[in-house]
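Methods: holo model generation. Sequences were used as deposited, without trimming of termini or removal of tags, and paired with ligand SMILES retrieved from the corresponding compound records. Each pair was processed once, and we did not select among multiple samples. The sequence and flavin-adenine dinucleotide SMILES for this entry were:
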Amino acid sequence: MAKKIIILGAGLAGLSAAWHLKKKGIQATVFEKEAIVGGLCRTKKVNGFVFDYDGHLLHFQNNYALKLSKRLLKGNLIRHERKAWVSNFGIFSRYPFQANLNALPKPVAEECLWGFVRVCNAKPAMPGENFLKWINATFGLGIAKHFMVPYNEKFWAVPLNQMVCSLWVEKFIPRVYLSDIVNGFLEGSCDHFGYNAFFWYPKKGGIMQLPLAFEESIGKIFKNSRINRIDLEKKEITINGKDKEKYDSLILTIPLPELIKIARPLPHKILACLNKLQWNSIYNLNLGVEGTCQPDKHWVYFPHKETVFFRAGFFHNFSHDLAPKGKSSLYAEVSYSRNKPINRKNIVKHVLRDLYKLGVITKKNKILVTDENDIKYGYPVYNRNYIRATSVIKDFLYSNGVITCGRYGSWKYMSMEDSILDGKEAAEVF
Ligand SMILES: Cc1cc2nc3c(=O)[nH]c(=O)nc-3n(C[C@H](O)[C@H](O)[C@H](O)COP(=O)(O)OP(=O)(O)OC[C@H]3O[C@@H](n4cnc5c(N)ncnc54)[C@H](O)[C@@H]3O)c2cc1C
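and the model returned the structure below.
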């Protein structure tokens, strides 16, 4: 008899696993707690505005993932050249900060340049146990002080000296050479650094068109089906507190810390490792506004502590389809964690206050629509326990017939592309 494969979660990772299994002639069964597929990669329509859950742009680095997405989206995908900025010292300067020093006040730019020159003369920093040390040793004290440290402290919402960076930093933080820094100091740079120099986005319908296209060709997806028990001994899941379903193999894309509540039995050692996992959460405020707003920007970084959000982006510049004619739409992202909570009561007021204060929106941009999203599991944090805890948990699950997959199942800083590829890899096990 064919093996019964169950996939938990219909985000991009779960959908990709199901799609790739189907391609091999294997029909898996997918359970999703929400009424629609897509997970974080979802879109909603509010009074004529099309909002994603926070900014979701495709930064392809892998040709297979790009080709697959193009095929699924049947031409509904446009490539854009990034227009990203940093808001600092009362001005907007081009991103990456470290390669565009010329727009900054002269003493700041010189401090950044000389700080970098000093570290160039030292041994290159290897990503290791202390993210803060790596920043200082890679970019020098000026760039660290004026951008890298405050931005990352705000973004991760945990002390940077408690983070390891060997597994992710080279991919997500653009390194630059002395020549780039000097060029950026003298005249501004050509702006093609890093994994996100280009992005792809659907011409119509928001980012959710991608999971919807996967769904079309998969079949057995049960929505409104929350898994509230995984019995690892009986190899059985419980759906919505009543229905039971046996499996031979489970592909798990739901966040690992959720296992504390739903998986049984969990040996003490595994429970201890699950309790060591750390993450930040993202509060996202989407806005639909009257008139034009920042027509030359895709997104802006806000490193300062005084500004409540760490980034804001402009949906209407990703696709004209996302805002009604003559109107604009944007998102602001606020990071928080157990160490650094936010005041939910005043958050909308504070976000709007800072958007006006920094000139991101003006009085002409009357607010027409607000839409809030609270993303509990934002970014898995690479703390000092990360490597051991994740490998112990994954080995235990694997020996019990559970394959972990996706950003929250694999518990990795993954992009949408990575999640698609991780789903493919999970399917290759069979
Ligand atoms: C704020 C933010 C911004 C991002 N921006 C970008 C970007 O610009 N570009 C990019 O490439 N990537 C971005 N990402 C990353 C991207 O969203 C993820 O890599 C990808 O969407 C993860 O897909 P996934 O399937 O692994 O997880 P998810 O999308 O979380 O899917 C997991 C699914 O499991 C379901 N589920 C959970 N618990 C249960 C349960 N008990 N029972 C049944 N179902 C359950 C959930 O409802 C969900 O549908 C961003 C992430 C965040 C948090």
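DSSP finds 13 helices and 20 strands in the chain.
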